[in-house]
Amino acid sequence: MDRDRIREILEEIRGGRLSIDSGLERLRLLPFEDLGFARVDHHRGLRQGWPEAIFCEGKSADETASIARSILDAGSNLLATRLSAESFEVLARAVEGVRYNPRGRTAVKIVNPPPEGHSVLLLTAGTSDIPVAEEAAETLAVLGHAPVRVYDVGVAGIHRLWSEEKRIEEAPVIIVVAGMEGALLSVVAGIARVPVIGVPTSVGYGTALGGLTPLFGMLNSCASGTTVVNIDNGFGAACAAHRILQRIPRRA
Amino acid sequence: MDRDRIREILEEIRGGRLSIDSGLERLRLLPFEDLGFARVDHHRGLRQGWPEAIFCEGKSADETASIARSILDAGSNLLATRLSAESFEVLARAVEGVRYNPRGRTAVKIVNPPPEGHSVLLLTAGTSDIPVAEEAAETLAVLGHAPVRVYDVGVAGIHRLWSEEKRIEEAPVIIVVAGMEGALLSVVAGIARVPVIGVPTSVGYGTALGGLTPLFGMLNSCASGTTVVNIDNGFGAACAAHRILQRIPRRA
Amino acid sequence: MDRDRIREILEEIRGGRLSIDSGLERLRLLPFEDLGFARVDHHRGLRQGWPEAIFCEGKSADETASIARSILDAGSNLLATRLSAESFEVLARAVEGVRYNPRGRTAVKIVNPPPEGHSVLLLTAGTSDIPVAEEAAETLAVLGHAPVRVYDVGVAGIHRLWSEEKRIEEAPVIIVVAGMEGALLSVVAGIARVPVIGVPTSVGYGTALGGLTPLFGMLNSCASGTTVVNIDNGFGAACAAHRILQRIPRRA
Amino acid sequence: MDRDRIREILEEIRGGRLSIDSGLERLRLLPFEDLGFARVDHHRGLRQGWPEAIFCEGKSADETASIARSILDAGSNLLATRLSAESFEVLARAVEGVRYNPRGRTAVKIVNPPPEGHSVLLLTAGTSDIPVAEEAAETLAVLGHAPVRVYDVGVAGIHRLWSEEKRIEEAPVIIVVAGMEGALLSVVAGIARVPVIGVPTSVGYGTALGGLTPLFGMLNSCASGTTVVNIDNGFGAACAAHRILQRIPRRA
Amino acid sequence: MDRDRIREILEEIRGGRLSIDSGLERLRLLPFEDLGFARVDHHRGLRQGWPEAIFCEGKSADETASIARSILDAGSNLLATRLSAESFEVLARAVEGVRYNPRGRTAVKIVNPPPEGHSVLLLTAGTSDIPVAEEAAETLAVLGHAPVRVYDVGVAGIHRLWSEEKRIEEAPVIIVVAGMEGALLSVVAGIARVPVIGVPTSVGYGTALGGLTPLFGMLNSCASGTTVVNIDNGFGAACAAHRILQRIPRRA
Amino acid sequence: MDRDRIREILEEIRGGRLSIDSGLERLRLLPFEDLGFARVDHHRGLRQGWPEAIFCEGKSADETASIARSILDAGSNLLATRLSAESFEVLARAVEGVRYNPRGRTAVKIVNPPPEGHSVLLLTAGTSDIPVAEEAAETLAVLGHAPVRVYDVGVAGIHRLWSEEKRIEEAPVIIVVAGMEGALLSVVAGIARVPVIGVPTSVGYGTALGGLTPLFGMLNSCASGTTVVNIDNGFGAACAAHRILQRIPRRA
Amino acid sequence: MDRDRIREILEEIRGGRLSIDSGLERLRLLPFEDLGFARVDHHRGLRQGWPEAIFCEGKSADETASIARSILDAGSNLLATRLSAESFEVLARAVEGVRYNPRGRTAVKIVNPPPEGHSVLLLTAGTSDIPVAEEAAETLAVLGHAPVRVYDVGVAGIHRLWSEEKRIEEAPVIIVVAGMEGALLSVVAGIARVPVIGVPTSVGYGTALGGLTPLFGMLNSCASGTTVVNIDNGFGAACAAHRILQRIPRRA
Amino acid sequence: MDRDRIREILEEIRGGRLSIDSGLERLRLLPFEDLGFARVDHHRGLRQGWPEAIFCEGKSADETASIARSILDAGSNLLATRLSAESFEVLARAVEGVRYNPRGRTAVKIVNPPPEGHSVLLLTAGTSDIPVAEEAAETLAVLGHAPVRVYDVGVAGIHRLWSEEKRIEEAPVIIVVAGMEGALLSVVAGIARVPVIGVPTSVGYGTALGGLTPLFGMLNSCASGTTVVNIDNGFGAACAAHRILQRIPRRA
Q: pTM, whole model, 2 decimals?
């Protein structure tokens, strides 16, 4: 997992500076810290290019705050998602300088600014899809990218989308957030050449089935080469965009 | 159900020409013929404006032929749907002059030409949706309407649809047949003012779920005022169009 | 989309009154207003014959009020659906003269009376289906039509329905609102010649599956030519009725 | 389970005619025969009032024939359900005098005529539901009851049902067999005072979901006091009717 | 529906005491009262043998009270199901002498004692199934029957059931209420000769799927001749028992 | 069920010390106590090796306390699961010396220490799975075993798991608690030779489907010989471990 | 994974007999053989105690035979599951001495007899469950255990089960194979103290849902401490039994 | 869609070389060819970077061949997916030089070699996933990329995966094809920094639910930033990879 580190250990063994048994143990020893209830993995940033985010749903406000402190103490940037306004109050008292996005339900504190990334186009079909898009936008920002928000451009009024055609053609990656039938993904991906990531949302009622309908709609998109993430997973879409963008050279 | 007929019976009773017990019985007596295994309702045409169609799936070729003869003997037009080529062979031997549509899997014999109806626009998203559209087209024809077929205009290549914009604006009723994510319904209904009926198809694989995905997609259409029929139900869509068209005056 | 407008632009270009670049831009420019969080499309009324309605579920009371003001400022009629009594309080303070229907959970303000439309028959199977029917009734009224409410005529006491037989035969369009097994649609459509639109409701428990059971029941109706809208979608059923009624001449 | 038998054993023990260990063993010993692959329980007839039926689906023709012989050897009546025409050939060679019903896919041999039972009304909504109804009819006959077949009286042509109203009022038990939306159960149970048993069928396509739609429709029937059996389970419905009829005195 | 009444009308017409048009109208006129939001059908008792019950879920306390008064004013007995303690408070203020069963969430007022019926055995698998059983018990009592409650006798401790074997053998009808895997139905029906009605309950978590698991388990019972009602539908099971018991002579 | 007891009764009968009728009755008589609403089975401990646990969901605090007292009065150990903090307050007032685990939502009182058992390895994929693991841990402790908690070792950071490899190889039984995709089970069972029991959790959102996704994932594990219990059923996993451990000799 | 092997490598490095880079490579090198289309893992037997089995569904007869030869060449025992009679013909020509079980659809060749194991009790509810039980029986035999087959003892005739009570009490592990409602698991586990593994089968029709109903029924078993494997997975149940039995001392 | 083309048309209009009406028409005119049953869109390659592929499932062999000829006549490369061996025979007679991949069920003819692309890592969990991977491999090749096949490296033998760790770290894009529980995606994405695309397969039985289980498992992956395509959609995964790779500079 950490080839250089293993090489180092092997060299110490060869040099006799480390016993074989200690070497064995160190080969097992991996860098994570045990908080008792959550093993925060500070090296994930090194390995994969993004910080440990806290998914706050199902965690108490105190647990969230405790994990947040541990992350910041390790010098990493903080991103908390699915954070209720009430839990943010607790977090804000525990950690200073955290910024809250009430629509996206995210909290962010940057202690180590990321290198400048790319512009990412963020489209939503309706206004109810905006919270999920905002979660993606905040995640992109923490990763160094600039979200370009174009909201409420669903296919029933498809003329609204045409005014954004240039942006669609020029973005290096597009994220399409849509509930209901999820048709926006197909239309956008039919125009764009670039990677288009669909995020189905749980917006809607009845046969929207909590997001399964736009999910299945997006998976069955008649536009080739689209991919999707889990329902309401704005964070995941942003991370997927980041995986793509890391290898793309910045435009001059 | 048949107010005039009941009035007649009551008048006969008052006039003493009919005993009360016979009157009671006649009030119960309703016009259908018992074939033993299927009660063919020849008066449905009178009541609702279309002939009894034979849904052939699950019926033997002989049963189909027997019902067909009974319908034609009563002077009604014949429409058989979901008819395999093999069963058509049997039918063709039993009844002469029946025309078969192999793509739509329908058989038709007109003995009583319907009054001239309207043009109905029939759109499909892909080529695999055509069999269902053809079932609708044949049903429309039996009901006196002229199907206008515009096939393979799915949203991933939405520019194909624009060349049909004028037809979309002028049709009195539009039927949209689509599998996969079913998005064509929303786009068309976002342009058209007229009734738009969606027919989800069982085309697709994996998460298309045998047509549930386009069905749910169409039900969640972000374009207001669309309605849908059952999966693959081209016959039903044509009947629904006919219910609408009966009251619309023909264009001069 | 707006052929006349494009023609005008082309004529200005030919006449040299408009540069090509400005022309290009104007061809893209489409009439919608950006509120930041929702693009209200005031021209939809022109294009399709109904005003922009506000679906309030998942919107804050303040967002609702803000969108409502924008709609009314543009001179359009206001229809808000799925509006809680609490949110109505906020709306009523922001906009004067709005009428609330607590059973249908709708708010309406007519500033521009629609042309007189048709009578539409609204049937419900039970009393619990009434809220959905009321949403349809209010939408019909905004569109200029007169809802004829006949409630609680489900098939278990099918004799209740017979007393409405004349209305069923004479209505230009019928909307059937039913939960549980949704059987009312089949019975009514077996009598009526006219378009019958089914609205499954989420009424019921256990295997009613939040409305999927009446939805699937209605889609499998043994009465030909029925169509359905999404679960609980009274608004959509009324819009579908309106699409049909626009072409039907008013009775003398 | 067999109080008298246990009493006998206890009396033998008290009388010293049976050792305690033998008594213990005999208390465990229960009357069934081991064929190696199927334990035929000949005493079920004594205990519950009906013979062991063979459910042939998934059994080889030879297994079926072998079980059939064992049942007949024990002096019981034979009823085989879900028996293909091919397997019947094998059975007919092995056992003489077996009668086959090709629509119901049942085989019957009566060696011990049952006491005369009741008339049971068997309704189907369509012609495709008939095979399931025939399975019920044959089962009823083996149990001594007289099936009264009234087929193809679905609710879309509800007038057909009225001509059967008297039979509905007089039957001691009614079995309603219906696919599609299953609405016939509600209408019939809304008229009848007697037990009404619904059998959903797997007839239909798309959203009929292999019979789940009529099953759920029937479970949500708005007519009180209806019960249902499994999809396509004509045999089970007949057995349920028999459980009811055993205590009802025959009409003079 | 009311043959005698129709005969009377026909006789008045013949006698010239009634005009044909008035006769037509009276033939349509059916005995139900319009409360505006619910058509209370007071004659259902005559037709089917039980009073109109109020299903209170989804009704306001005031609606419930208003319907209750209408039922009692017509001289019928009152049964309200799914009634919260809060709504009962309102009902108790509106109508005096109503008895509330907090476990079964039912309210009852008998103004017209029913004829003496039968004993009905009510089994539950666990303690959590008791509320549904209590709803059945109260319904049975209103219908004149005596519920015999045997609760918490699930199959994991099957020896508990044996002590009830005599009751199982002697009851004219058995109702089995069970959640989780619903196995109690099969075991009981394997012992009993009489009708056994299963009521699956929504008790359980995870894969109990809100009661679908015991429902499907019961439908697939390996004991022949069992029937089921909807999930948690204690009221329906009692009505089904009543349909059966009406024809069974009382034991001396 | 209790061979010795039956032998004793038979011997008393033979010896004439017991009448046959009394003997019959005693054979039926089984050791459980009737609290009215729950039959507490104190002998289950003797028969199967664990005490009666109280599943508190859906029980009132008073019912829980009453059952708890009955269990303790019989000299058994007490284990209550799914106990809210509020209900614990009531229990704590009714019974003294009960210990509450707020994460596992369990209450325990040991009055009869179990024999010393084994160490059981308890793994969780994430921090949100801990409550279910804690329920298992407390159950194990009541049964005499020592839970070894290793939490938050999911496969996305699979290196964390390697540091636990030795424990995985040495544990006599492993319980893997995981939500989301449930992949941890496969990885662990691919390493370990011993029984590995999977507990899917309802952690996650969207397509986690309340735990069905990890459940199905675990059932489809590509590692042979794994078994699973119901979603969130930590108690059941511990009991299954106990069934296994009873026959395994303790390590020296 | 192989601590001793790693130690060896480290010692070679310290001794200078191995360069660091070669050591790094060897640390990665793991023992499996590449057939091109399937990596047969011969060391799995060493690591987990069972041989590589071939799951033949979806593999061509030639692929199966090729993998079989590779396994036997490595000196391991062969077990092929889900093997059609046709594919066995091919296998029998390629490898001599293979024994086929047509009911279980398994092929076995023992080249290296396993150490003597335990008796395992195998119960089925019906005769249709036998193929799955036979797959388990054959797998157990390959692993050295003796399957004790007790078939067709379902709960509807629960007295059949009592004659097996002693075996249930004495078996070290019990496997219960059941379709339909899966109730046998609960009844058996309510009697037995030992590990009980449920295998739901896809036997049944309609709402058996291809085995989901007995699966969910078994997961919701009211008998504590039961576990289940995937639908029809007799192989997996035997492997799970083997994991348990490895640590249990053989009875004298 | 084609800004330059529109500019040209506008310039012709300004220059008077084109009438306004002709201009209007040309603005609508879009480049696709109408074969009657399928509109082949030859310009898609220009717009999005890949040729029109033929999805052959549900198309007759003749339709496939006809579309293939049209594509090749237009000078595009041919890729046909889901092509049965029988249909390939027909295609091979119609078009010469087509290469068939029987495992991937694809046919390819390159007439216009694509520019050299990247290496793409293709992993499968088992051998049964290979057909889907081969479809992806062939698609990648048509698009100019070099598939690197590493098959049968599922997580139950996770040590097999470690030998591929270097490739995982270096690939610009990874495609993970897996059925059963789909866990391979999480493990790979936990190691890799680059885009990882999951393709769930319909391999497996019972609760694999035709691929829904690995699909949902992958969507719930605990490794951030993964995306998925539809079940068995190897073609789609390759297209998604191509969208990503178009912007990534080739390694020196």
A: 0.81
